[in-house]
Amino acid sequence: xxxxxxxxxxxxxxxxxxxxxxxxxxxxxxxxxxxxxxxxxxxxxxxxxxxxxxxxxxxxxxxxxxxxxxxxxxxxxxxxxxxxxxxxxxxxxxxxxxxxxxxxxxxxxxxxxxxxxxxxxxxxxxxxxxxxxxxxxxxxxxxxxxxxxxxxxxxxxxx
Length: 159
Description:
Blueprint: H1 3-34, H2 38-72, H3 81-115, H4 124-128, H5 132-154
């Protein structure tokens, strides 16, 4: 296999990891909207830790190997419109991940405090996953990822 093949493989694998993490978080947010059980919310929040790691690995890999691919190939330049657009959408998705990470950390802290018997209402734990702001933000991040995928596949404006 050539260096191009390896870079493309690593770039696509990183992208799949990024999408897998987003899918897990989407499932947690959707399930969290529908649950009333604090125990179920705690179980759902346990899924967010591996998803967070997967997201950071995938995001970093897509960026590093994507830039390496563009620099390595004479057909593309870093200032091509589709590359700049994909990078801008990557930044949007990254910001959403950063904010969701903070949200999930607060939700896990609340769930731990409730589980440990702190003076916290048990009803507050399911409410922690019903944040409309987080759900809307996640939808924007998902749209950014889909836009990035579109740009990577079709490369509008590329020769």
